[in-house]
Amino acid sequence: MLPTPRDTARGIALMLLAILLFTAMDAAAKGLIQRYPVPQVVWARFTGQVVIVVLILRGRLLAALRTRYPLQHLVRSACQLGATGCFFSSLPHIGLAEATALTDLNPVFITVGAAVFLGESLGPRRIIGVLVAMVGAMIVIRPGAEVFSPAAFLPLCAAAFYTANALLTRKLGPLESHWTPMIHAALFGAVVTGALQPMVWQPIAGNDLPIFVLIGCLGTGAQLCLIRAFSMAEAGAVAPFAYVGILFATIWGIVLYDE
User: Fold this and answer.
1) For residue 181, how far is the Cα from the chain centroid?
2) pTM recorded for the entire structure
């Protein structure tokens, strides 16, 4: 069944909120990554989501863990971890806004992928809209020389992982509770990155502890909004609104890091 106009509007609103939260999380992570290893910051992001979801679900946790699509959730969880890990790893090397601009090639990938793999409509207006938005975003951000550095490959990989994650979210979203992908992805990310902590762990300074907690909270809220957005509306309809992330990332970069 095709989404109604109301569902599409709600999906777009949730996507905008998700992007706002994601860019705020990325901005906070950029500061921490200057002082802590990337795997430690990524671990905090997913562990925070585990704690929050468990507290919210409590007695419904086992029900949320049950799924008829374990392989799809495993792949989706791995893609989400890959997107987060690649993007966070790029932040010490290139600006927040430029990394976001490169990652925001994903609306093009998602729009095309949704048509090829999910059977969504791909009319000329949607194609032109996505491409014009991408060109306009690049003009606004005016990517510098950092875009041509080897580190630029990391946000491009993040875009590929994010695209696969978004398409699987769109496919699974209408079939199961939104808490199911939330807890599966959080547990996968926390366990995988948790295994690395004995090799990379650095003691957390008291002043930085609230920022670690904030990253977990922002990531959880963003992921919940994203899942709901892709569950309500076609992927090709909501994905182009991710370009607003370049605006948010530019503001965070100017205000927090003088970029």
Assistant:
1) 13
2) 0.87
